[in-house]
Every structure is written in C-alpha cells, then in structure tokens.
Amino acid sequence: MDFGFGAEDEELRGQARAWLAEHLVGPYAQLLGLGGPGSEHEGAGPRRDWERELGRGGWIGQGWEAPEGAYGQRRLSLTGQVVWAEEYAALRAPGRVGHIGENLLAPTLIAYGSPEQQRRFLPGIARGEELWCQGYSEPGAGSDLAGIRTAAVRDGADGLFRVTGQKIWTSLAREADWCFVLARTEPGSKRHRGLSFLLVRMDQPGRVEVRPIRQMSGTAEFNEVFFDGAVAAEAVGAEGDGWTVAMGLLALERGVSTLVQQIGFAAELERVLGLYAASGTADPVVRDRLVRQWAELRTMRWNALRTLGTQGDPGAPSVAKLLWGGWHRRLGELAVEVRGAAAAAGPGTWAPELPYELGLDEEQRLFLFTRADTIYGGSDEIQRNIIAERVLGLPKESR
C-alpha cells in the first residue's frame, strides 16, 4: 500500500495539533509523559479524566468498522489514524488507560458480538467512561493460552456464568470496570475446545480480587486477578467458540499502536545517544551498536507502515513483536552500558510516585523493565512457532 500522506491528512494533522494544544492544559499538562510501558500506574486517576476528554472530542474509536458518529467517534482513514497517533505521541500526551477497550475489545465486538452487545458496550468505550482489562494469561498458561484452567459454569437460578480461577499479568486491572475473560465452559474439555469469551464486571466485592505484582524495577502495573464465582454478563460469540474470538482479538493487538510505541522508542534512543555524546568516550563498538539501533528503528517503522494494510495476515503481528521486543531489550542494555559504573549505583534522583518503588533513574528503570520485552505479550519462542506453523506451514511443535 502507498502510505504517503495527502492533503486531507495534513489538514487533519493541523486539527490534531490544535486540539491537543487547546486541551492538554491545566491538570492534563501535568500528565505529559506519564503512563507509558513500565509506568502504566502513573497518574491513573487523572488519566481516566483525560480519557473522557478524548471521548468528548470524538478521538476514540477512529478505526472502528462502524459508521462515523454511530458512537460519537470520528471515522478516520488508516493514514489519518497514523497522523493522529503520531501527533499524540510526539507531544508526549498521557498514556491511554482506555486503549484495551478501544483497540482490542471494541473491534472484537464489532466482528463477533451481537447488535445488543455493541449497543451496550461501544458507547461507553467511545465516551471514555468504561475501561477494560484482558483476562487471558494464567500461572500455568502464559503464552500457551490453550492450557487455561479458569472455569465458568452456568447458575441454575439465572442462567448466568459464574467464573472461578486466576489470571495473571493483567494490565490496568485496578483501574478497569470490566474484564474480558477466556474461560473453560465445557467440563473436561482440553486445549482450545470448550472455551468461551466472557465479559465480567470487576466491581464484584468478594468475587473479584486484584493483587498488584511488584516487578524488579519496583513498579507494579501488572496484576493478579482472582475470580471466585464472579458473575459474567454474557459471552461474545457462541458458547464454546471462545478460542476463535480470542485469536481474532489477538490479530488486532498490533497495528497503529506499534507506530505510537516507536515514537516513544525514538525518544529513549535520543536520550541514550545524548548520554553517549556527553560521556566523551569514543568506543567504536558501542558507537556501532547505537547506529544499528537507529537503523533498526527506522526499519521497524517502514515494516509497521507496510503491514498496516495486511489485515488478517497471521504472521504480521508476530514479526512486529519479535522486532520491537528484541530491539527495546538491547536498548536497555545499551543505556546502562553507556552510563558505565554509575548505572550500578543505588537509587538515583528520580522521585517515585508509589512508596514501594526503588527510586531508580531512567536508564536503570529502562534496563530492568526491558528484560521482560521478549516475554510478555507472547514470548519470542511462541511468536516464532506462530510464524513457522501458520505462515511457513512447518510441522507443529510436539507437545
């Protein structure tokens, strides 16, 4: 596809800049740079207010396959979505607390949900009023989702599902109003059979418990979620067909958001380059690695633009994850290497927002958090298996 930006895109770019400049003021100006990967806990409450501000501006749901304005949203072309995302990231606007609902659940409801489910849930997401989290991974079923054990049974009194089990690595679980949960609804079923895609309200005292997971970086944006007979409002798609719905959702997980992520990566790389220049060293090996980081980031952008038009390509999301996961991890390693011995020192000058954080400086936090980049969101091993089996047609891995 040709991803050159036309006159309409440039007009939109001006509108986006003007709207952001007008609205990123007052308390919202204090949120600039907060809420990115590794710091999703920062300013969660005010960022929720910002989500509603975006909803009032019609900036949520731009890429939904729904008529423009059906849920109060603007309908933008693919290049228009890229323009908005790039302008948003360039200004270091607050990390989105509603991105899981907007970019994962909403398109899934449009593709697999009933008209009633779309009318019930899409307006709240578009207004920035209802936040979602994702209930997939479990302690014994991380990248291998087919091994999940969370179970749901129908209650005879009202016919609704009651969900019991544990999910892990759940981002934004403390902030979310709802969770979409992959659960086993057919007793005795194995692997991908007998699963259903359920919608569970988080505000169920005694039935839903969220426990933050403290990481080695000191932050705790991931969580464990325990369900003890929690009521599920309904299932998306047919009962027992949850695997199809869940895989359809995962195919949407990359995309325009990858380009936004890369703008953040570019800012981090620029900081590391500045540290290298300020150090006064001339290590040719480190210099070569920094140049490679710059070149690889440009290549990732071109690849992301190329694959935006390949909807349904089973390999594109996995290739993107492999590229950025390894790249970001290497950047974290370079960050502390450029700092030298100072990177091994104790807490720096960064003032933590949460009392249990370690007080690390930016390079230390970058290094520690990026150790997980090749694991979360589907490990490198799983991504390579997907490419081998679904794209190249190689024999499946023995189990």
UniProtKB/TrEMBL annotation:
Q: Does the keyword Flavoprotein apply?
A: yes
Pfam families, alphabetized: Acyl-CoA_dh_1 (PF00441), Acyl-CoA_dh_M (PF02770), Acyl-CoA_dh_N (PF02771)
What this protein needs as a cofactor is:
FAD
Query: Where in this chain does the record put each Acyl-CoA oxidase/dehydrogenase middle domain?
Result: 133-228
Q: Where is the Acyl-CoA dehydrogenase/oxidase C-terminal domain positioned along the sequence?
A: 240-392
Q: Which residues form the Acyl-CoA dehydrogenase/oxidase N-terminal domain?
A: 8-129
User: Source organism's superkingdom?
Assistant: Bacteria
Name it.
Answer: Acyl-CoA dehydrogenase family protein
Native species:
Streptomyces erythrochromogenes
Provide the organism lineage as a comma list.
Answer: Bacteria, Bacillati, Actinomycetota, Actinomycetes, Kitasatosporales
